[in-house]
Amino acid sequence: MRQEEDEFGNYLKKQGLKFTPERVVVLDKVLSFKKHFNADDLYESIHKYNKKISRATVYRTIPLLVESGLIIETLRCQGRVSYERVIGFEHHDHMVCLGCGKIIEFKDDRLEELQAEICERYEFKQVEHRLGIRGYCKECVAKGLGKG
Amino acid sequence: MRQEEDEFGNYLKKQGLKFTPERVVVLDKVLSFKKHFNADDLYESIHKYNKKISRATVYRTIPLLVESGLIIETLRCQGRVSYERVIGFEHHDHMVCLGCGKIIEFKDDRLEELQAEICERYEFKQVEHRLGIRGYCKECVAKGLGKG
DNA sequence: GGCATAATTGAGAATGAATATCAATCACAA
DNA sequence: TTGTGATTGATATTCATTCTCAATTATGCC
Predict the structure, then answer these.
(1) A80 and A107 share a domain?
(2) What is the rounded distance in angstroms from the CA atom of residue A114 to the CA atom of residue A118?
(3) Is B127 close to A135, i.e. CB distance below 8 A?
(4) Is B126 in CB contact (< 8 Å) with chain A?
(5) Which chain A residues are Cβ-neighbours of B137 within 8 angstroms?
(6) Sequence-ordered list of residues with C-beta below 8 angstroms from that of A75, at least 6 positions apart, any chain
(7) Which nucleotide is nearest to A19 (CA to C1')?
(8) Do A37 and A63 fall into the same domain?
């Protein structure tokens, strides 16, 4: 059993919740994603090989995964919330293009350091953070979008 | 006419859009908010004294205000998106305490500069950004929350 | 001022992600 | 093994947001 299954199982037990096969299926699929996913991505990719897991179960499992710390909410795009894994992937931030919807991932150590410093100043114990920059990508600017 | 009306008017003109009385009403109400608001807050408070402005117009005007730089999307709670004014209020970011729900607002110029620099590197035209740090505040840490 | 025209509007319908309902089923502690 | 409360799938529902469309209007041009 993977470490993440242990973690999730422990979390559920601590909350008096059950570690069901359906939740394992959802967790395993989540662990297979290397990029962002939304609830529907998750449901569809599970549904391809497992017709038994319902959309409701997927939607119900997501907040549990967030609370257990295995995934975080990242972006909101076109009315949908995206999630991504926390453990096993490097943290990065996002730029979302308002023109074409493209997502650019970036990472900057100075940004991380600065945030850590700010948290220290406020005596705030950081668990996670989310930085989303919205605007227009190079290509969309070239097309004349986002002027002004 | 307020500076913000000029700004919004100029933005609209530049985009070939019209500066209608309805948009002025929405803008003026937005300017009256001192804290975050969501689309429904905005519609309801306009509707109290102006029954002519439709919900659709309010929803249609919000993205224009975002693109013009007068407001930004801030937080998403309970499935609703919140906005807040940019001009006239200093931009700030948020720390959200997972223990007590407290929201701490902070501002750091170096953070802003760094973001501008990163956008430049990617030739990305920033419209707005949102940084949310989640964790535990001083008081909650003292209470023993957020260990591990 | 008046005209042309494309943008905008209100009202209501439509969309669709997310949540709730509920009877049947199941995990898990004792 | 059993009791019990959590969970499930299927489906209905919710409700914020977006779309539709005919009527209206802002704005540039003469």
Answers:
(1) no
(2) 6
(3) yes
(4) yes
(5) 122-124
(6) A36, A81, A82, A94, A96, A103, A132
(7) C27
(8) yes
Question: Do B69 and B119 reside in the same domain of the chain?
Answer: no
Chain A within 8 Å of B129 (Cβ-Cβ)? yes
Copy the structure tokens of residue A102.
């493209």
Count the domains in chain B.
2
Percentage of residues of chain B with pLDDT beyond 90: 39
**Contact criterion met (CB < 8 Å) for B123 and A138:** yes
Which domain range does residue A19 map to?
Answer: 1-89
Residue-wise pLDDT for B99-123, tens only, equals 666 778 888 889 989 999 999 999 9
Residue B97 Cβ under 7 A from any strand C atom? no
Q: Are B46 and B26 in contact (CB under 8 A)?
A: yes
pLDDT of A26 > 60? The answer is yes
What is the pLDDT averaged over residues A78-99? 73
What does the mean pLDDT of chain B come to? 84
- The verdict on A80 and A108 lying in the same domain is no
CA of A51 to C1' of D13 (A): 23
Q: What is the CATH number of the domain that holds B100?
A: 3.30.1490.190
Q: What is the pLDDT of residues B40-99, one digit of tens each?
A: 999 999 999 899 999 999 999 999 998 888 888 876 666 677 888 875 556 678 887 766
Same domain, yes or no: A101 and A70: no
End-to-end, the C-alpha distance of chain B in Å comes to 55
